[in-house]
Amino acid sequence: MMFKKLWLLFFTFAKISALVVGGGLAMLPVIEETFVRRKKLITQEELLDVIALCQMVPGIIAANSAVSIGMKIAGIAGAVAALTGAVLPSFLVILLIAWFFPGLSPENPYWLGAFAGIRAGVTGLIAVTAWKTARRTAVGTVEVLAIAAVVAAALWGVSPGIIIMVSIIGGMFWFFCSCKRIGKRLSGGEK
After folding, report:
1. Is 105 left (phi over 0), alpha (psi -120 to 50) or beta?
2. Measuring CA to CA, which residue among 76, 78, 1 is closest to residue 35?
3. How far is C-alpha 156 from the chain's CA centre?
4. What is the pTM of this model?
5. Is 132 a member of any domain?
6. What is the pLDDT of residues 29-53, one digit of tens each?
7. Would 127 be classed as within a structural domain?
8. Helices (H), the chain
9. Residue 185 lies in a domain
10. From CA 34, how far away is CA 69, in angstroms rounded?
């Protein structure tokens, strides 16, 4: 049974890594479809936790997500199997490109057209992932304000530094107001 899970993790991440172009964020919809919907090995909430964790820790998103999901499903052996599956296809492709690189022309219109199409597809995959994640996580005022800040930064060129500073100040204000409300409830409840 354990070997079956390890093989599933290796093969699934190898397939995803070989066929999905665009990095870890582009892989997330396929990971969701495979591990949450079809195989039901992790829940939607666990996948959201994996996404949040992968954004916080340093490293490649694809590798971080493979390790996290592998650990949840089959422990350390699962993490190794998933990571190997996620890294091996990319390593082999880079090896082939390096081997044939001297013969490739960077001005080749076929290559340029292929990369333009890949960029469009990756942008769509990332947009779908962002939309699905926002729909599930934007449940309160703080989350909606965070999304509005990201949209403001993207559309109107607001400096991320300004958004971070305003968020820190707003978070401190919200924390102190929450503490006052909790204090009032506690003091009112003790009377």
Report:
1. beta
2. 78
3. 25
4. 0.61
5. no
6. 888 888 999 989 999 889 888 888 8
7. no
8. 2-19, 24-31, 44-56, 61-100, 109-137, 141-156, 160-190
9. no
10. 12
Identify the pLDDT of residue 191: 46
How distant, in Å, are the alpha carbons of 8, 59, 161 from that of 155? 41, 28, 15
Would you state the structure tokens that stand for residue 18, as one six-digit string?
A: 């070989």
- What gap in Å lies between CA 9 and CA 86, rounded to an integer? 9
Helix (H, G, I), strand (E, B) or coil at 138: coil
CA atoms of 185 and 190, how far apart (whole Å): 9
Q: Which residues of the chain have pLDDT under 70?
A: 101-104, 188-191
What is the number of structural domains in the chain? 1
Would you say residue 143 lies in a domain?
A: no
Q: What is the pLDDT of residue 82?
A: 95
